Amino acid sequence: MSEAENKTNAQVKTAISFKNLTEQAQSVLAQAEAEARQLNHNYLGTEHLLLGLLGEGENQAAKVLNELGIDLASARLAVEGIVGRGETPVPAEISPTPRTLKVIGIAGGEAHRLNPGSRIGPEHLLLGIVAEGQGLAAGVLETLGAPLQKVRAQTFISLISASRVNQPAAPRSNVVTCRIDDRDLDAIDALIEAGIRNNRSDAASWLIHVGLEANRELVEKVYGTVAEIRRLRVMAQALAQEVTEGKSASTGQDEKQADEESDQ
Q: Which single residue of 80, 107, 146, 261 could bond 141 by disulfide (Cβ 3.0 to 4.6 Å)?
């Protein structure tokens, strides 16, 4: 790589680091560079970006990867097994590869699509790795048992969950009105008469709680099923978005081609 290319890459890296990335994402890049140097690699590849996400550790992307069974140690072994260690000293300045810059560019698009005007965070970097799909980092994820579509879906779920936590919860009434049969009403009245509960509302609430506790195993299975439904819904929405964007791009190309042919 020429001196001019190295200078351009360094300038791009600086602009990305200090203008477009959140502080946490900048920490990820710093960790990625440290991982590259540890392996005596004189470049910053997508594989180092993945190690940086895991090495920083406190970001949403790392938590998603951990939940999928991927930790820093296993990812390091996978990267070293594929690329090996460098034998020459690492220069003072190392530059991101074109593919890494592409991943960061895609991450910027993901950040803007999810929240226009926002900066790139670690979770967007992970989405960029997955969306680009051809880098060594994507291969490592697949090798370690994390299909790219699943990583993408889990990242979206994490983002949705985080947004709900950060937003004030909408007021939710804890009063439930329902119609019950005579047998249940007799049981409620018996609880009141025996002095176990004070009123019908209190007795009904107590019976619901007792019922949930008695059927905890079933309730936990239901929670698991609901979580899977939510994951699949997010995955379906992501796929639909990709198909829509693909069709829009294809339509745009067709229209451009038609315009060019009409001009000839």
A: 146
For residue 38, pLDDT beyond 80: yes
217-255 in b/e form (b: 16+ CB < 10 A) is: eeeeeeeeeeeeeeeeebbeebeeeeeeeeeeeeeeeee
The set of residues, in sequence order, having a beta carbon less than 8 Å from that of 196 and lying 6+ positions away, is 203, 206
Asked whether the beta carbons of 165 and 239 are under 8 A apart, the reply is no
Residue 52 CA to residue 166 CA, distance in Å, equals 25
Angstrom distance (rounded) from CA 5 to CA 239: 36
Does 75 fall in a domain?
yes
Q: Is residue 176 part of a domain?
A: no
> Do 153 and 201 share a structural domain?
no
User: Is the domain of 155 the same as that of 189?
Assistant: no
On whether the pTM is more than 0.90, the answer is no
Q: How many domains does the chain have?
A: 2
**Is residue 130 in some structural domain?**
yes
> Which of 166, 196, 219 finishes a domain?
166
pLDDT digits 0-9 by tens, 60-79? 889 999 988 999 999 999 99
How far, in Å, CA of 36 to CA of 46, rounded?
Answer: 10
d(CA 204, CA 209): 9
Domain boundary among 124, 142, 166: 166
